[in-house]
Amino acid sequence: MNAAPDSRTLLAIYRKMSAIKHNDERFISTMLAGRLSMPYYSARGQECIPAAISVLLRDDDYLVTIYRGVHDMIAKGVPPRLIWAEFAGRSTGTCKGKGGPMHVTHPESGCMVTTGIVGAGMPIGCGLALSAQLRGDGRVTVTNFGDGASNIGAFHESMNLASVWKLPLVFVCQNNRYAEHTALATGTSIERIADRAASYGMPGLHVDGNDPLAVYAAAQEAIERARSGGGPTLIEAMTFRFNGHLIGDSGDYIPKPEYAAAVAADPYPRYRRWLADNGHANAGELDAIDAAIKAEVDAAMQFAFDSPLTDVAEVTRDVFADHAA
Amino acid sequence: MTIQTSKADKATIVQALNWALDDAMAADDQVIVFGEEVADPEGGGLMKVTQGLSTKYGSRVRSTPISEMAFTGAAVGAAITGMRPVIEIMLMNFLAVCMDPITNHAAKLRFMSGGQTSVPMVIRTMTGSGFQTGGQHSDFLEAWFCHTPGIKVVMPSNAADAYGLMLGAIRDPDPVLFVEHLLSYWTPGEPPERGKAIALGKARIARPGRDVTLIGYSRSMMDLPVVAQKLAGDGIDCEIVDLRTVSPLDMDTILGSVRKTGRVVIVHEAVKSFGVGAEVASRIYESLFRELKAPIARVASKDAPVPFAKHLEAAFLYSHAEIEAAVRGTLL
């Protein structure tokens, strides 16, 4: 049966959440200071989901994420200094500044594709999982998407294909209740997206995405099923994004009481309190983790701005393997 | 039934492609094949190109649900792990329902990842008018993909080229759209040399000549030799260039021929406007404007959807008379 996470694992989850939160805050403040220019889709508020999932993954397990995906990348192990350099358009970035926040790729940490097209990651996730199945290498693929993507054809085609082929795949719907500016109920025919799994003959799990223990338990079940040949699972993790669709979004379409309630349920302080109340760490120990993370953010940012801008000759490179201009 | 593999004087494109897939799968266990009905229980593919492969290679050959978006995206995912998927999109018009994995992902992931990942997949598809299948089953849409940097477009016209180009496409490190013509599948031709790939991006002089360069690919290569033969009777000596790979274009071969003849007629089954012919003509003008003896002529299908009725379908496509008139026009 599934085991509850030990203190070491619980603190690993906290460390990832802290890294996501503090990098995110620094990205935004650096943008507002005029030192970073990019379309940035903050995942602040959703950090618990990838943090709790990724402590269960191997380094070589595959990740697919989306434009709102920096939390998934950091949790999976993409080094923040390479993300910072990518966002700053530097030659040392994950993709030499040619991908940007919507297209970070870092195969060494399993981050294979980040897509800017809603729903497009799921078919690709099927292919990563097919590769693992045919090779028998035991890798699991986690493909992330939002509630809005559950209404696009790619979601339904991929769920069906993954189920028919029993692919080692975990579909993670990070339901933050808004598809761009459209509320869940306005665009989605069903209350629980997890219920859609039944249509495809796969288990669907609906969890509080701000509760690390709930996410961990669901992910453990899904990853074990995938790794043991039992096929795919859909996890719907309920959450919220605090900074709108992208930085600059006024959030006028979100009712004020709903927003206030979501911020009150902020997973980061909630998890801090829980760790302290349950004796896994005291406030001083958690502060020390945060301080170390902040120092890493400082260093990552410094690394980025110390790196050279990518040469303009790169504009016509990597189009084909033989990149004669 | 398996497709004949014994030594023969002639081979069809169906045989050649089947041999190419078989040889590629035997040589490299990372080559996998999937698409609608490609496995033997479902018939081995619409035109039987994949017949026998699932029996021989098991789960490496899979029939998919009718979900082009999902299985094309799956090919992208498998390819970035280093597998070599060859997928079949039953008809070229169906590419319209899986453009996103092709143009937003397959063609761009090498670039967007800064060269960290690549997508060595082959998308086989087929099309062609002449079967009264109307507006959604017989289009030539190659220009859409030629206009997308990052994907190559191959359109063979005979068995030997189909075999060599398929091996070349599978071994190519980038995504390749491989377009087969429905009308040409069963035409006997020179048999391929087994195991020998043809590099992509190389055109072929199908007929040497002095007076006019005829440029074609795919179906028009069934027509150009007929017209050239007729014109030869009138002392007009046509050189025929089979592009074979439409993108990237082999401008060395094209320009080499045009330098010799100074006259050009480009013929394709795709509609004329904004087509491959326009790009080829532009590039010739950019390089050899002053050496041309006549304006470049384009002969193509009418700018309309493909109609259903047999006589309308015939009127939609170019005719041999139009090609002949275009050639004579360059000699006035």
- Helices and strands of chain A, in order, run as HHEHHEHEHEEEHEHEHHH
Task: Give the structural class of chain B.
Answer: alpha/beta
CATH-scheme architecture of the largest domain in chain B: 3-Layer(aba) Sandwich
CA-atom Rg of chain A in angstroms: 19 Å
Fold-level CATH name of chain A:
Rossmann fold
Secondary-structure content class of chain A: alpha/beta
Residue share in β-strands of chain A: 5-15%
**What CATH architecture of chain A do you see?**
3-Layer(aba) Sandwich
Largest sheet of chain A: 6 strands, parallel
* Helix-residue proportion of chain A: 40-55%
List keywords for this structure.
heterodimer; A: 325 residues; alpha/beta; 6-stranded parallel β-sheet; two-stranded antiparallel ribbon; 43% helix; 12% strand; B: 332 residues; Rossmann fold; 12 helices; 12 strands; globular
Your description of this structure?
The complex is a heterodimer of chains A (325) and B (332). Chain A is an alpha/beta fold and 325 residues long. Chain A has 11 helices and 8 strands. The mean pLDDT of chain A is 96. In chain B, helix 2 links the parallel strand 1 and strand 2. In chain B, strands 2-1-3-4-6-5-10 form a 7-stranded mixed β-sheet, sandwiched between helices. Chain B has a 5-stranded mixed β-sheet with strand order 7-9-8-11-12, with helices on both faces. Chain B contains 12 helices and 12 strands. The longest helix of chain B has 15 residues. Chain B has 2 domains: 172 residues, 3-Layer(aba) Sandwich (Rossmann fold); 127 residues, 3-Layer(aba) Sandwich (Rossmann fold), CATH 3.40.50.920. In chain B, 36% of the residues lie in helices and 18% in strands.
